[in-house]
C-alpha cells in the first residue's frame, strides 16, 4: 500500500519568515494530495490540495508544489503569523480507489512572535 | 465541521469491554471514514463506507468492526477494547466525487485502562 513520509516533525520559525514542509509518497498511482491543518482539540481542516495534473497551486500565503517524477510534494507558507502555529499533515490517495487518504506523520509548526 | 457530529467526545473504558463510537452527518454524503490518530503516525484508516451496508477495511482494521444501516450514521465498534486502542478517533466524510477532499469531525478521545 501507499506510504507517506513527512519532514520535519517539528518546525520553529520567526514570525514573518517562511515555512516549508516536505512529503514523499511511494505509490506512483497516487493522484490526489491534500494538506490539512489541525489545531488543538479539533479535527484536521483542509487548507489546500493538488492533483497530479498540476505542478503548483497557490492560495494567498500558502502554496503546494508537486514533483511526480520524484514522488514528493511540499507545502510552503510565506509571511508566517502566530495563527499558523498548528500541526500540519500531508496525505496522498488514489481517487479511483475510494479516495482513501494515507497521511504523513505530521509536522508541528511553531511561529514565534 | 461539514455537519459531522461524533459522540461521545470523550470516553474511558476498561480492557475487555465493548465500545461503540458514533458518527452522524447531516448532508447524506455517500462516503464515510473512520481514522485513528496516534503520535508519530498521523491518521490511519480503520474502515470506510461507500453506502448503506457497504463497508471495507482500511490499514488498521483488526479489532474493529463498523456498521452503516442509515446514510447519516456510521458506527465504529471495538468488540473487546485493548489498551492499544487508546487513541483519538476521527470520522470523516467525502463531500464530492473523485478527488474530493475529506472533511473531519472533531474526534473522540478514547482511553482504555
Compose a concise summary of this entry.
Chain A has 113 residues and is mostly beta strands.
Helix content of chain B: under 10%
Greatest contact pair? A-B, 30 and 29 residues
Order of H and E elements of chain B? EEEEEEEEEEE
If helices are DSSP runs of H or I spanning 4 or more residues, what is the number of helices of chain A? 0
Features:
heterodimer, A: 113 residues, six-stranded mixed beta sheet, 11 strands, globular, B: mainly beta, seven-stranded mixed beta sheet
What does this structure look like?
The complex is a heterodimer of chains A (113) and B (113). Chain A is mainly beta. Chain A has strands at residues 4-7, 10-14, 19-25, 32-38, 45-51, 56-59, 62-67, 72-77, 86-92, 102-103, 107-112. In chain A, the strands form 2 sheets. In chain A, strands 2, 4, 5, 9, 10 and 11 form a 6-stranded mixed beta sheet that branches. In chain A, strands 1-3-8-7-6 form a 5-stranded antiparallel beta sheet, with no helix packed on it. In chain A, a hairpin with a 6-residue loop joins strand 4 (32-38) and strand 5. The radius of gyration of chain A is 13 Å and the shape is globular. The termini of chain A are far apart. Chain B has 113 residues and is mainly beta. Chain B contains no helices and 11 strands. Chain B has strands at residues 4-7, 10-13, 19-25, 31-38, 42-51, 54-57, 64-70, 73-78, 87-94, 102-104, 108-112. In chain B, the strands form 2 sheets. In chain B, strands 2, 4, 5, 6, 9, 10 and 11 form a 7-stranded mixed beta sheet that branches. In chain B, strands 1-3-8-7 form a 4-stranded antiparallel beta sheet, with no helix packed on it. In chain B, a hairpin with a 7-residue loop joins strand 9 (87-94) and strand 10 (102-104). Chain B is globular and about 40 Å long. The relative contact order of chain B is 0.33.
